[in-house]
Amino acid sequence: MYGIRELSGLIILVMTIMSGLLYSSLIEYCLHRFLLHNSYEQEHVKVHHKVFHGIDSYELEVIDKETVLSSFGEILRNIVLYLPLAIAIFMKSRFLGILFLIVCIIYNLWEEFVHYYFHKKNKQLFVFKLKLFKKLKEHHRIHHYMYRYNFGIGTSLWDVIFRTIKKV
């Protein structure tokens, strides 16, 4: 049986993990919506959405990783955006600050992983059979032909909250 001290420690641990997931997914949503999709004239919309159109060319046998995965600089930018909150938490608890940053980075890797495999044909890993993956893939597919909706890649939570979700 847990004492009150252990229970409160467990609650703080879970809250730190949840905060890291929420914060990193919000960063992903905002960057995707406001930085990459300001207008149809932006390079991302003109290139990525043309190559991987949501209706006729969403999945390809061979894909150029540069058109699907974030660059090293973009991933580094995300980590820099995670740092202020991670440092603030670190000042209270080193362990929790580091945990928060690790959770944010893991979410960023999840987002890169699913985005790459949303567009790649012939997948054999077990994760592709999961309901979560299938729902996220359809969510993102809709985004590719309706680029003003469904900005979340690793989650659709912020699309629901900010009413940018579109279902077909």
TrEMBL record:
UniProt keyword annotations, A-Z: Membrane, Transmembrane, Transmembrane helix
Domain of life the protein comes from: Bacteria
Protein name stated in the entry: Fatty acid hydroxylase domain-containing protein
Organism per entry: Clostridium fungisolvens
A Pfam family per the record: FA_hydroxylase
UniProt cross-references to InterPro entries, sorted A to Z: Fatty_acid_hydroxylase
Limits of the Fatty acid hydroxylase domain: 19-164
One Gene Ontology molecular-function label: oxidoreductase activity
Native organism taxonomy: Bacteria, Bacillati, Bacillota, Clostridia, Eubacteriales
GO annotation, biological process: lipid biosynthetic process
Transmembrane annotation, as ranges: 7-26, 79-110
UniProt feature coiled coil, ranges: none
